């Protein structure tokens, strides 16, 4: 996997993935932020032309088509982990719809499923088995907020659309990754991120998030 490819969250030592917090920090409910991130990605998908599906993306192993397939799978995994407690066996990509439905409609349907799956009162404090270990629900949700924002930037850049998410949402995602990706963690062979890129002086928070994850943006 290339250093600038996936945004699959991996934890820093002592941190909950996606939160940058230790186990003594009170749970933070980011379910509304997850919905906002998904809505932003859905609007970006609305703006994609069929002729752009083979465009490269900042995720160097993904074309636009492959990134869309991955994003559909990410939403599926978000729901599956809430429904079953684990994402074991859940695919990392799903084929784009061939039944006449639009990709955006399929994405929105998958996102709606995630909202239903995470709506329970105890969803944020229950434990879930993810690739990086067992984490509380609030940490899993925070990680998926950050992943959607990061891949939204990838998609926007690849298709020539405005690439800045809501600043508060992007800052939240950036803080999440800053907490779980200290420089020493980046050196681990299983961590799919390259060295951070120095952001431009006028970079917005979503671009700075991409730079922090090792993506070049200028």
TrEMBL record:
One of the record's GO molecular function terms: metal ion binding
Protein name in UniProt: TIGR03086 family protein
Source superkingdom: Bacteria
Domain Mycothiol-dependent maleylpyruvate isomerase metal-binding, first and last residues per copy: 35-156
Region feature (Disordered): 1-33, 197-218
Species: Nakamurella aerolata
Gene3D superfamilies: dinb family like domain (1.20.120.450)
Matches recorded under Pfam families: MDMPI_N
InterPro entries: CHP03086, DinB/YfiT-like, Maleyloyr_isom, MDMPI_metal-binding
